């Protein structure tokens, strides 16, 4: 999420889900202390969703875990094999919206 926040519509678009699904996800994040709903500076009808300190800490931890995972694969398979694996997976991934199953 951008440091300045995002609207529910922007989050929905980014995730490829409906606004209702994004709103439910944000409700859960707010309840758990990972995000806040703030007044939008230019649109009184909208709210800006921002991450809390806890939310940013979780994001940093996820980024670090992904980097560690990627490094493990590179160390095990080699950089060329990991690059080729990425290309191969990109050919079979179905682009577009994914229906959430929560």
From TrEMBL:
Q: Which PROSITE patterns does this chain map to?
A: HTH_MARR_2 (PS50995)
Q: What are the HTH marR-type domain coordinates in residue numbering?
A: 1-94
Q: Which InterPro entries match?
A: HTH_MarR-typ, MarR/SlyA-like, WH-like_DNA-bd_sf, WH_DNA-bd_sf
Q: Which domain of life does this protein belong to? A: Bacteria
Task: Please list the GO terms describing molecular function.
Answer: DNA-binding transcription factor activity
Query: Pfam families given for it?
Result: MarR_2
Alphabetical GO biological process terms: response to stress
The protein here is known as HTH marR-type domain-containing protein
Q: Which organism is the protein's source?
A: Nocardia mangyaensis
């Amino acid at each position: 999420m951008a440091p300045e926040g995002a609207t529910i519509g922007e989050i929905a678009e980014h995730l490829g889900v409906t606004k209702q699904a994004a709103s439910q996800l944000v409700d859960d994040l707010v309840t758990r202390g990972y995000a806040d709903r703030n007044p939008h500076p230019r649109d009184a009808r909208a709210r800006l969703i921002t991450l809390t300190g806890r939310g940013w800490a979780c994001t940093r931890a996820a980024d670090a875990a992904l980097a560690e995972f990627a490094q493990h694969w590179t160390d095990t398979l080699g950089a060329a094999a990991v690059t080729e694996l990425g290309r191969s997976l990109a050919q079979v991934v179905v682009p577009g919206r994914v229906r959430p199953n929560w």
